């Protein structure tokens, strides 16, 4: 590939169009030249690898905005090579977009926690939490959204209808989207980071967080009785909510407090351990709207398949993540989810890691006697030897995966002209879990990103929809898109009043992505013991599966080593004599030549308060 991250990558708009074209027109590539087989010795076998990526299917894209004279428009400042998200591709966007981000390791002033003993300032993972961190922002909304301050302390409540801007959205044409394509960083996989999840802990521990910046998810939404509503999460949100009665507020507070310490009260739920969480909620004297909010927007679990214990665990996890960085449990990386693998790549490169883009591999070379993999053979015929080999599932051939049963993920990405829930602030990062449209269909996770996340151009929103597949992505997701958005083109007359006021979709793409997570290693045919398989993205909202898998593979290879340890300070590194290369050698991999991040790289990656933790520690 000519980009980092595989199916975890992010693209500019023109990069995504190239990716779409590649996946719509891809054909099986056969070896035109088998010369590389002459390089295999008599005592060696080969395991051939895929030449094309077969993990993406049913790619369909649609343009709903005015496409006049767009054919000759080029992306502003376009490069000759495919652009991938990152600081290099978003420097221009950073100059004009509002930058509302909460630095890693610094809690937001006023952010509330459901756990007093774990409030800001007491978390050992972050020595600077609880301090008043000054965050400059050009947007007025930073005071009550990006910083996560409670509405109680600010003396503000949710925007009343009269306070909501009724200004018509600006007309955005397709040529504008193409011209501003570098402003977009569009993720192939849509995820958020739980503020107390495994990935955040790993980013802090390994100091990889210094290469990234994050923005708080500002709103948890719900679809109830045909309209989108904001769900109160923190105590302040609950008591300031205008959509809940006083009785509902007390019932909700009582139930959420119980969920935080449910293990201490087994008598209250043990009779329902064999029931679903939805059935358990009906026994708690909660109103239908509260049951809906808890099930779909807080626990975010299935109504039919989730047990009572699983639902309580999910609710507790949500509540424990509140207050660490803001009034919702989630963070989103600026410039897109594709920044995360690139951040780890940067840290690895600082300590001597080597990456080869546009460099395909023909096969794995296996020693017949030992049965172990000894090398790979690239498309130049070069043999690269190693002790261990980690292969992403998509590289394995059909013969190797003949016994593997894959799941699929349905994905859609929309560019829209306004938010699904208008408020007095345009800069919102929202998550909405749409209940199943029909019986047997999965719930759909909707994540809406504003321009201050550096993922879309000004006056637009980037909307990601994700669910486990039952059919093609378009068949799974279009019913949800139709409920939330206006799909009429500019030239079509809106015939139904219900379409008025809905955000208009300017452009959309649907595709199915393979979910190779959770596959047992024994399902792969005849893999050598020193070849490890990692999966692509799963359909879950967080990244716990990927972190656990990475740590498991690492521990199997190096059982005595620590996984992703904190990097040493330069002054603490002790060099062996054999690591010091002669000055006139011309090339050296010694620690002396390992590059330190430049000031520019540090600024683009967003040096955060987490850096101070390890430097001061």
UniProtKB/TrEMBL annotation:
This is RAE1 geranylgeranyltransferase. It is found in: Cytoplasm, Cytosol. GO terms for biological process: intracellular protein transport; small GTPase-mediated signal transduction; vesicle-mediated transport. It comes from Casuarius casuarius (Southern cassowary). Belongs to the Rab GDI family. GO terms for cellular component: cytosol; nucleus; Rab-protein geranylgeranyltransferase complex. Gene3D superfamilies: FAD/NAD(P)-binding domain (3.50.50.60), Guanine Nucleotide Dissociation Inhibitor, domain 1 (1.10.405.10), Guanine Nucleotide Dissociation Inhibitor, domain 2 (3.30.519.10). Residues 138-148 have a biased composition (Polar residues). Residues 87-168, 560-617 are annotated as: Disordered. Its main location: cytoplasm. Residues 573-582 have a biased composition (Acidic residues). GO terms for molecular function: GDP-dissociation inhibitor activity; GTPase activator activity; transferase activity. Residues 409-539 form the RAE1/2 domain. PANTHER family: CHM, RAB ESCORT PROTEIN 1, RAB GDP-DISSOCIATION INHIBITOR. Pfam families: RAE1_2_domI_C.
